Amino acid sequence: MRPVIPYVVAALLFGIGVFGVLRRRNAILLLMAVELMLNAVNLILITASTTVRSYLEAAGTAAYTGQVFALFIIVIAAAEVGVGLAIILQLYRLRRSTAVDEVPLGEDAAPVVPR
């Protein structure tokens, strides 16, 4: 198998995800960009595992480590989305906006009373 095409697709997905993280102000779109980056990493892990497994089968051993790591990344991504959406919903209830650059950071931030 020639793994060039999956690696190029993964690089494009990761690049789009990085652009989304650096450029977007909306927190929901930011989470979607992070998910794109995680899916690109999953594609790389599975492609590398498939490529290496074809060589290992010739030697008599086979491993599914890429698929196992991809499964762990999917579980972590699901937990990240659950926690992230809960934080974004609370932010929207308090500020009526999901803009990331309006989030108060640090101890100097004044608490906002919900309307």
From TrEMBL:
<keyword id="KW-0812">Transmembrane</keyword>
<feature type="transmembrane region" description="Helical">
    <location>
        <begin position="29"/>
        <end position="48"/>
    </location>
</feature>
<dbReference type="GO" id="GO:0042773">
    <property type="term" value="P:ATP synthesis coupled electron transport"/>
</dbReference>
<dbReference type="InterPro" id="IPR001133">
    <property type="entry name" value="NADH_UbQ_OxRdtase_chain4L/K"/>
</dbReference>
<dbReference type="GO" id="GO:0005886">
    <property type="term" value="C:plasma membrane"/>
</dbReference>
<protein>
    <recommendedName>
        <fullName>NADH-quinone oxidoreductase subunit K</fullName>
        <ecNumber>7.1.1.-</ecNumber>
    </recommendedName>
</protein>
<keyword id="KW-0874">Quinone</keyword>
<keyword id="KW-0472">Membrane</keyword>
<keyword id="KW-1278">Translocase</keyword>
<keyword id="KW-1003">Cell membrane</keyword>
<feature type="transmembrane region" description="Helical">
    <location>
        <begin position="6"/>
        <end position="22"/>
    </location>
</feature>
<keyword id="KW-0813">Transport</keyword>
<dbReference type="InterPro" id="IPR039428">
    <property type="entry name" value="NUOK/Mnh_C1-like"/>
</dbReference>
<dbReference type="Pfam" id="PF00420">
    <property type="entry name" value="Oxidored_q2"/>
</dbReference>
<keyword id="KW-0560">Oxidoreductase</keyword>
<keyword id="KW-1133">Transmembrane helix</keyword>
<comment type="subunit">
    <text>NDH-1 is composed of 14 different subunits. Subunits NuoA, H, J, K, L, M, N constitute the membrane sector of the complex.</text>
</comment>
<feature type="transmembrane region" description="Helical">
    <location>
        <begin position="68"/>
        <end position="89"/>
    </location>
</feature>
<comment type="function">
    <text>NDH-1 shuttles electrons from NADH, via FMN and iron-sulfur (Fe-S) centers, to quinones in the respiratory chain. The immediate electron acceptor for the enzyme in this species is believed to be a menaquinone. Couples the redox reaction to proton translocation (for every two electrons transferred, four hydrogen ions are translocated across the cytoplasmic membrane), and thus conserves the redox energy in a proton gradient.</text>
</comment>
<keyword id="KW-0520">NAD</keyword>
<dbReference type="GO" id="GO:0050136">
    <property type="term" value="F:NADH dehydrogenase (quinone) (non-electrogenic) activity"/>
</dbReference>
<comment type="similarity">
    <text>Belongs to the complex I subunit 4L family.</text>
</comment>
<dbReference type="GO" id="GO:0048038">
    <property type="term" value="F:quinone binding"/>
</dbReference>
<dbReference type="GO" id="GO:0030964">
    <property type="term" value="C:NADH dehydrogenase complex"/>
</dbReference>
